[in-house]
Amino acid sequence: MKSDSFDFTAALQKALADPQIGGNFRGALDGLRGKRLALFNDAEELASLRATGKALKARVLSRLPELLTQLEANCEKNGIRVHWAETTEQANRIVLSILRECGADMVVKGKSMVSEEMGLNRFLEQNGVEPVETDLGEFIIQLAVEPPSHITAPALHKNKLQVAEIFHRCVPGAPYTENVEELNAIARTTLREKFRTAKAGLSGVNFAIAETGTLVLVENEGNGRMCTHVPPVHIALMGLEKVVEKLDDLPPLMRLLTGSATGQLLSTYVNAITSPRAEGELDGPREVHLVILDNGRSTMFADPELSGALRCLRCGACLNNCPVYVRVGGHAYGSVYPGPIGAVITPQLEGIDNKGDLAGASSLCGACEEVCPVKIPLAGHLRRIRAEGQAAPGEGCVRGAGAKRSLVERLAWTAWAYTETHPRLREYLLRAAALMGDKLPEVGPLKTWTAARTAPRVAPKSLRQRVREEGIRHE
Amino acid sequence: MSSTPAREAILTRLAAACRTPAPVPAPADIWDAPELDAPKRLELLAKRLQAVRTEVHVTPEKQWKAKLAELLAARKPATLAHGTGAWFAKDLPGICKKPGMPALTPYYEDVDQFKDALFGVEASITTARAGIAETGALLLTPDAGEPRLLSLVPPVHFVVLRARDIAASFAGAIRDLKLAEAMPANLVLISGPSKTADIELTLTFGVHGPKELIALILT
Fold first, then answer.
1. How far is CA B209 from CA A107, A191, A226, B192, in A?
2. A445 to chain B, minimum CA–CA distance in Å?
3. How far is A375 from A373, CA to CA, in rounded Å?
4. Across the interface, do A251 and B119 touch by the CB < 8 Å criterion?
5. Hey, are the CB atoms on B183 and A247 less than 8 Å from each other?
6. pLDDT averaged over chain A?
């Protein structure tokens, strides 16, 4: 998704004005938070798990190129063909060429955020291939022609009445029903036919194990297994940070992922794919392809601080616990990855000039950090992205650094610094503020600031002045 | 299309930024599930499977055929698919020969020939290679004798597990089965029937995979 004309403030205002967004999100996210807390009810165990998760993923990052080549070598040894893509455009072309080669004009898709990042569906449609989303939530929003609003629960913004209307309108022959079981049944019947006839299936990857060359997919519905077991060709897409060192690392990481995402001890299915159909096997894909996508990740990796975000497991817990995300929902962010983690990685992937504003949508309360299963210092990263936006020319490391630098803001801070280092001027200005502070016209930045806040009242005397006159009372 | 230039460019960029390897965390610092004795494992596995709506029947191995017959009679599937490599494959014709029992549909052909039949089958039965007590999961390693789709496509899935194959934890199962040395082509952990909560977080079962999962644990 490109977003050249993206106006974050307008998107936020629109979201805040829509009571349905607030209602649908708040109810759902309260539920998810409750389930997570119920599962991780032992503080000591949770601390040990998170420390483990952080250490394992940090070690992966410290050996990233080596582990990626090991993963590649083991996958190839197992018969999985590995492709590398620097950009989403390259990744899209790789997928299309595999589909063309196997003669697929339709592909069944399991849930994959990387495919959203690639804008794969649109690209395939433009090239005459029909992508069919099969995760129930993704199926709903594909019919509604909308992007996901949450990284693990993509149709979170829709209530059942809306889903009922979408199915009735878009699925041929579907009756109108608000019964959730019946809605599920409509999806099941429609998609079974697609699974049975598809020549290719596509999936994401939750963990790719370097030691064994194994792709691990985590899911509850079974659609991911359908996409990866039934069609003769399986294409898996992964961001290069998904690699994990050893099979032994999987149990704690799995617990952290499913626990943080949905409060589940384990998902219904953990599907570990190590090779295409083996000699003598009667089913399973004959070809398995793995596409490893960079798309800016290697640039993130180069920054010793911000590379911490590459530990992300994509559990969505930081979204569920973010007071901003809960109020405005995912679409307001106008990016594939919303919420705190989205506000950290999107400006890095798409440039601060495009998406730097996202980092402003945070009260820096730290709730995201507190729940992150791999302890990404999200608030610190958000501050860093903000600072990168103000960086002086030649300084700053993130793409588009300095794009938010404004003359007004710089002048204001220079003036402030000068005032604070010149006591007499400061005293004079304080007196002026006491006299006129409440009478300042609300224009420019002051108007923006007070639009959503009550302006503080300026005291008639400064604290310094009162201390001088009254002394310090020890109460 | 050659993706080699992309590969080189990515790895070169990563290598340029690479740091000293972080140390391997000491085993004591790695979270692990507690060890459990055999009766505890069985008890916990059954409890946790049931918590995610798996039907669990614990039965002595000597009586398991009668138990399966009883479960089939109660559910009345018209057809039962199975792999020819399951250790109980030879027992199934005996169990299913009585009237009212399902017709057996052995999966012995390539999926291209068998697919249409499989998508019409009403139930299936497979073995589980191990159980995992701590997470409440069944570990399956589909192969030529028991293909991958058996545990996925039919709406009712019976799984047969020997109690002695229950590991305390996922990590324990990885060690017991020496999986790191030889991963099977496909390995699945299954903890319950297929489910989703994508509409208003309302939990519903049987969205794409089996609607019912019935575990027979043989002691």
1. 19, 11, 8, 10
2. 40
3. 6
4. no
5. yes
6. 93
User: Which is it for the CA torsion A71, A72, A78, A82, positive or negative?
Assistant: positive
Through-space distance between the first and last CA atoms of chain B, rounded to whole angstroms: 56
Report residue A91's pLDDT band, with 50, 70 and 90 as the boundaries.
very high
Q: What are the tens digits of pLDDT across the range B85-143?
A: 999 999 999 999 989 999 999 999 999 999 999 999 999 999 999 999 999 999 999 99
Whether B148 sits inside 8 A of A283 (CB atoms) is: yes
Containing B103, the helix (H) or strand (E) segment is strand B103-107
| pTM assigned to the model | 0.93
Which ipTM score applies to this complex?
0.96
| Residue in B closest to A151 by C-alpha | B198
A283–B147 CB contact, under 8 Å: yes
pLDDT in tens, A292-325: 999 999 999 999 999 999 999 999 999 999 999 9
Q: How far apart are alpha carbons A331 and A335 in whole angstroms?
A: 7
Helical H segments across A286-360, by residue range: 297-302, 317-320, 323-328, 339-350, 352-355
- Give the DSSP H or E segment for A407: helix A407-420
- Comparing CB atoms, the residue among B24, B152, B195 nearest residue A226 is B152
DSSP 8-state code for residue A354: H
H or E segment at A219? strand A214-219
Instruction: Check: CB of residue A3 under 8 Å from CB of residue A355.
Output: yes
| pLDDT bucket at B3, cuts 50 / 70 / 90 | low
Q: Report the gap between the CA of B27 and the closest CA in chain A (Å).
A: 10
Q: How far apart are CA B96 and CA B101, in angstroms?
A: 5
Contact between residue B143 and residue B16 where contact means Cβ atoms under 8 Å apart:
no
What's the whole-number mean pLDDT along residues A55-73? 96
Q: B192 to chain A nearest CA, in Å?
A: 6
In this prediction, residue A1 has a pLDDT band, given cuts at 50, 70 and 90, of very low
User: Rounded distance, CA B69 to CA A157, Å?
Assistant: 46
Task: Supply the pLDDT for residue B1.
Answer: 41
- Which of A49, A272, A281 is closest, CB to CB, to B144? A281
